[in-house]
Amino acid sequence: MSQxxxxxxxxxxxxxxSLLAPGPGQFLEVGGGTEGRIDIDALAAYxxxxxxxxxxxxxxxxxxxxxxxxxxxxxxxxxxxxPRTTITSWGFLFRSEIIPATFPAVFSELPTVIGVPRSxxxxxxxxxWVDPSVLTTSSVSLMGVSGFNFIKVRLGYxxxxxxxx
Length: 165
What we know:
mainly beta, Immunoglobulin-like, five-stranded antiparallel sheet, 3 helices, 16 strands, 15% helix, elongated
């Protein structure tokens, strides 16, 4: 409870505001109008929830998910170990095979996904990137892309979005 009492709110702490309130279940008026009333009990309960909820980390064979319970934000990451080779002609570019990647935890809406090469190119060449496509709340498909044929790249992603706490 000492953590809650020491949370600053406009220069005051919960403990300070509690001393100013008339009593339990009462309101502290700020600025003299009813729109400025603060329910001290509700404010303390809200702060207590925020302090007690911790960041959740989920690790499984599909990668790592980090969940922030108060905001409902989830971040997922994954990197594969097997390098993929850009050997399929794709317009003026070359691509690897398309690899489906299941998120380690499901999002409640479509996340934003950035394809990340684990190493820009395994064989020391440059100019490879990862393209995410076919996105759902539980998975994304990835492929390595390059302007050069036979470039090896490890696929990975960074996904951020909302989940239902």
